[in-house]
Structure formats: C-alpha cells, structure tokens
Amino acid sequence: MRLIVGISGASGAVMGYRLLQALGEVKDAEVHLIISEGAARTFASETELSLAQVEALADVVHDDTNLAASIASGSYHTDGMLIVPCSMKTVAGIASGYAETLIQRAADVCLKEGRPLVLVPREMPLSRIHLRNLLECAESGCAIVPPMLTFYSGAGSLEEQIDHVLGKALARVGINYDKFVRWQGL
Questions:
Q1: What φ, ψ does residue 142 adopt, rounded to 5°?
Q2: What is the pLDDT of residues 84-106, one digit of tens each?
Q3: Whole-number Cα distances in Å, 20 to 47, 54, 149, 164
Q4: Per-residue pLDDT tens for 114-160?
Q5: Are 86 and 10 in contact (CB under 8 A)?
Q6: What per-residue confidence (pLDDT) applies to 155?
Q7: Burial call 34-62: b when 16+ CB within 10 Å, e when fewer
Q8: Ordered alpha helix ranges (H), the chain
Q9: Helix, strand, or coil here: 144?
Q10: For residue 50, pLDDT beyond 90
C-alpha cells in the first residue's frame, strides 16, 4: 500500500507525527511525506520534535514546492492520501482546485483519479467560508474527519484522543488501527 501523508500548517502537527508512527506499523506500507513550510514552523512551536525525526518515519520525503514530484502525477499510483492536520488554507486550495503546493496538487490528483483523500481539518470555530470549503471538498469526494473529542471510548489522555481521530481517518483508507477503541454497544 502506497500512501501520501501531508502535514500542513494547522495547529496539531503532533497528529501528523502520530499518523506516521501508526503507518510504520502497517505491513508493506510505503509512505510518501510532504511537510508544508507552515507545518515546519508548527512542529518547532508545538513540539520538541525535529523535522529529521518526523521525516525519518517516511519512506520518501517530498518538498512541498516540488510540483514535478512523482506523486504530482496521476500516472504514479498511490492508494490515497491523508492530510493531518489540514489547514483551512489547504482546504481552500483543494476546494477550488488551486494546486499551488505539492500537498494541494497531490490531493487534486487523488480526487481526479478517484483515490481516497482524507482531510483532518484543524480550526475552531469554523467560519461560513470554512464550512463552505469543507462542504465543497466533501462533495468532491474527500472524507472530512475533524479531530473531535471522543467520550464513549473512555479516552482519558491527549494521546488516546489522537488515537481515536487517527483510527477514524485510517479506516477511510482501509487500515484498521489497533489503538482505536470501537463502540461495542451498551
């Protein structure tokens, strides 16, 4: 399975890092990583992680300005893409088909090729413009998986809350995440 992971400049870069860790546990997963300039700044301000530590979890790392990368073409097969977290700037580009960055172009390719595209938008509160753009993305085929708190799973820590979001996001590309707690009923 070949997946693209985009980490854009929204708050919550640690979710992208944890996604990469989760994908590292998936047998035969080939991960192509794109970190936006904004995400690099977010990692520096929100975590103790170096970009080298994050990039080490990927099989291939692409520069977000390289629109000639392999993943910028539909003829290069991938099994989908997850953008975690996904900034509203990235959402707006995807919604309008404006592929100025490699993250946006790879997302555009997934949509045009009918491949899964999962967005984990990280903004609160959402303006009407954000909601319109998210609706446009959903109507274009994106799965929108906002990082909302879970209560039924008994998640008592930030890590468990992130695991819940990642479990929901990974399910959209056909991956069962072992740290995701499913509802079992009463």
A1: -75, 145
A2: 999 999 999 999 999 999 999 99
A3: 15, 8, 21, 15
A4: 999 999 999 999 999 999 999 999 999 999 999 999 988 888 899 99
A5: yes
A6: 86
A7: bbbebbbebbeeeeeeeeeebeebbeeeb
A8: 13-24, 37-46, 51-55, 88-96, 102-113, 128-139, 158-171
A9: strand
A10: yes
Interatomic CA distance for residues 185 and 111, integer angstroms? 35
> Which tokens belong to 140?
């274009």
> Whole-angstrom Cα distance, residue 76 to residue 83?
19
The three-class DSSP label of residue 53 is helix
Per-residue model confidence (pLDDT) at position 173:
97
- Which residue, 166, 184, 181, 182, is CA-closest to 25? 166
As beta bridge partners, residue 143 has 118
Query: Facing residues of 3 across strands?
Result: 31
pLDDT digits (tens, 9 = 90+) for 159-183: 999 999 999 999 999 999 999 988 8
**SS3 of 72, please?**
helix
| Backbone dihedral angles phi then psi of residue 96, each to the nearest 5 degrees | -95, -5
Q: Which amino acid is at 134?
A: L
Amino acid at 36: S
- The sign of the CA dihedral 36, 42, 43, 45 is positive
Residues sharing a CB contact under 8 Å with residue 142, sequence separation 6 or more, in sequence order = 94, 107, 111, 117, 118, 119
